[in-house]
Amino acid sequence: MSIPVYDVLIVGGGGAGLRAAIAVAQADPTQRVAVVSKVYPMRSHTVSAEGGAAGVIKDNDSAEDHCNDTIGGGDWLADQDAVEAFVEEAPKELIQLEHWGCPWNREADGSVAVRPFGGMKIQRTWFASDKTGFHMLHTLFQTSQQFDPVTRYDEHFVFDLLVHDGRCQGVACIELKTGEVRIIAGRSVILCTGGGGRIFPFTTNAAIKTGDGMGLAYRAGVGLKDMEFVQYHPTGLPGTGILITEAARGEGGILLNKDGRRYLQDHDLGSPLEVSDPRHPQLKSMELGPRDRLSQAFYWEREAGNVFTSDDGDYVHLDVTHLGEKKINKRIPFVRDTALKYVGVDCVKEPIPVRPVVHYMMGGVDTDIDAATSLPGLYAAGECACVSINGANRLGSNSLTELLVFGKRAGMGAAAFAKANPEVAVDALAAQVGDKAARLKSLYSEGREGEASIASIRRTLTSAMETGAGIYRDQARLDALCETLREIKARIKDLRITDRSKTFNTQLVQALELEFMVDAAEAVAFSASARKESRGAHQRLDFKERDDGAFLKHSVAFKSDGDPRIDYKDVSITKWPPAERVYGK
Ligand SMILES: Cc1cc2nc3c(=O)[nH]c(=O)nc-3n(C[C@H](O)[C@H](O)[C@H](O)COP(=O)(O)OP(=O)(O)OC[C@H]3O[C@@H](n4cnc5c(N)ncnc54)[C@H](O)[C@@H]3O)c2cc1C
Fold first, then answer.
1. Fewest beta carbons less than 10 Å away: which of 38, 148, 151, 404?
2. Residue where a domain stops, chosen among 378, 408, 430
């Protein structure tokens, strides 16, 4: 069997993957790059980002301010050397994107427009209407096509990393159209597979976000860092989890419980909302409180029986009717459209049902500041990675920029590694094809009748995650979750796959995704169980305070035969000693 060999092989065609591909092609036009993606690149989750991308550009702003907001917002768990590099490179990357064609919105004087965003005390979020992710991804996609050395493998599902001689040297994937197993070799490999919000039942994340890259790295012995930190967004639609952007509250939308009470006034949203900041007067509205605090307020309202119940889960109301049709159509047309399409509510006339939904995973594949993992030849960037610039809680609009900064760094690092390590053990990799194909075949071969239904395991998994590792956690609930995951790991060995077809076998893909979801879920659950403090998105009812003495550390989960092993790593502190988190949003 002939195996294609690339210098750099990138798994994922979202923002991080495409930025990495361009970086390699620009660093050394003689290098060959492959981008392998389970969906057509423009369908990656990056496309759905609405709000914007952060980067210092205005005179009233500074790198120091952006670092301050990011580090405080992350509850001091971010690595400060990484944050400094990120903040420094962010505006350069955003300007570069403009030169490639990204249509950033403008002020009347022609300068780049910025908007306020959660946790950013100064306005620094660049945006392209309310379709920022779409425009960014489109720009990256069309730019990547200019480079001949970039070859795409669209609709190829990667299910294994190939490690030989202590080095990652390629991937095993299925071409979805034909069902054929392929081995693709790479002198270096970059994982850009995005997050894993789908391990929870209510999430803004696209169906493809099943933590695949995290699982791939984890199985190859690489640690998953800070996985216990999972961000909730307070306003998703019940049922689908589709995001109703913060802009709805920014424009004046209010949250009401089932009795019509503006319930946020009854909850502690953190002191900074009382602080009047002339640069950002909107912060005084309680609906613009921190995402995590707003989600926690929902939890307590539900405990008190003050929320609506439905088959699609519990919810409260987001009311924008008082803004009037004209303003709604002008400022938040996409919100009207989304509510109408997905819950049949015209928000000009009625409130929109909303609930907290999982939005983003701060944790991921443990990398250094240059996106390298502990496995030689393997890099990771974007939401699947944890550098970490987000610490215990990501600030909205930092992650789109993170894709650019660390996508580029990953590309440069992987290109240099490929140059220094030209030999690829093609024969040894070819020998692995048989094993990989056999494992797959065993999953859905003729005559095999597994016991376990994919849908039912998936439901058990996601609902256990919500109960055990949701907005609030405690030891009893985490222990129950870990036990459920042990049971699932036993059951999943006997999955039932009834579809035997080779062409677009979505059932097989779902089975493979479910295995990745279990990997990601166990890393979240066991890391959360071991962290006996409350920090950022990890809130425990039995350990309510942050404990810097014991836990100013990154957790790193390693796969083992039984429960994962949880290790810890120091946080890099450069200039910002830990203080109380008073960042506001
Ligand atoms: C609704 C929504 C709105 C958001 N809004 C904002 C915002 O305004 N600002 C902001 O900063 N952030 C925002 N975020 C977060 C941000 O958009 C994401 O973190 C980011 O886009 C992730 O990009 P990525 O390149 O890491 O991965 P993705 O864009 O998710 O791409 C992952 C890629 O990996 C591929 N892949 C995955 N698994 C496999 C596999 N097994 N085999 C082959 N290929 C695979 C997929 O095909 C895909 O191409 C938002 C997120 C959501 C969900």
1. 148
2. 430
Q: What is the mean pLDDT of residues 362-389?
A: 98
267-279 in b/e form (b: 16+ CB < 10 A) is bebeebbeeeeee
**355 belongs to the catalytic site:** no
Give the span between the Cα atoms of 172 and 431, in whole angstroms: 12
DSSP 76: T
Q: Cis peptide leading into 388, omega within 30 of 0?
A: yes
- Do 206 and 307 belong together in one domain? no
Residue 205 beta carbon below 6 angstroms from any ligand 1 atom: yes
413 C-alpha to center of ligand 1: Å?
21
Same domain, 214 and 95: yes
Determine the Cα–Cα distance for residues 37 and 141; give it in Å rounded to an integer.
Answer: 13
* Final residue of a structural domain among 430, 461, 483: 430
Average pLDDT value over all residues in the chain: 93
pLDDT at residue 305 greater than cutoff 70:
yes
Among residues 297, 360, 357, 289, the alpha carbon closest in space to that of 583 is found at 289
Dist. CA 390 → ligand 1 center (Å): 16
Domain that holds residue 338: 237-358
Q: How far is the CA of 15 from the centre of ligand 1 (A)?
A: 7
- What's residue 437's pLDDT? 83
Each residue's pLDDT tens digit, 421-444: 999 999 999 888 888 888 787 777
Q: How confident is the model at residue 585 (pLDDT cuts 50, 70, 90)?
A: very low
Taking the centre of ligand 1 as the mean of its atom positions, its distance from the CA of residue 454, in whole angstroms, is 24
Number of domains in the chain: 3
Q: What is the mean pLDDT of residues 272-279?
A: 43
pLDDT given for residue 439 in this prediction: 79
Q: Which of 19, 43, 249, 554 is catalytic?
A: 249
Same domain, 350 and 446: no
Asked if residue 237 has its Cβ within 6 Å of ligand 1, the reply is: no
Tell which one of 44, 189, 359 to mutate to probe ligand 1, the residue whose CB is within 8 A of the most ligand atoms.
Answer: 44
**pLDDT at res. 275:** 38
Q: Is 486 a catalytic residue?
A: no
Q: What's residue 265's pLDDT?
A: 87
Kindly report the protein residue whose alpha carbon is nearest to atom 15 of ligand 1: 399
φ, ψ dihedrals at 366, nearest 5°: -65, 120
**pLDDT confidence tier of residue 273, bands split at 50, 70 and 90:** very low
